[in-house]
Amino acid sequence: MPEGPEIRRAADNVEQQLAGEPLDAVWFAFEALKPHAASLIGRRVERVDTRGKAMLTRFDDGRVLYSHNQLYGVWKLHPAGAPPDTGRSLRVRLEAGDRAASLYSASDVSLWHSATINEHPFLARLGPDLLSEDVSADAVAGRLQEARFARRGLGGLLLDQGFVAGLGNYLRSEILFFSRLHYKRHPHSLEDDERARLAHYVVELTWRTYRQAGITNTPEWVDKAKRQGEKRAQWRFAVFDREGLGCHCCQTPIVRTMVGSRRLYFCPVCQPSGA
Question: Is residue 197 annotated as part of the catalytic site, yes or no?
Answer without folding.
Answer: no
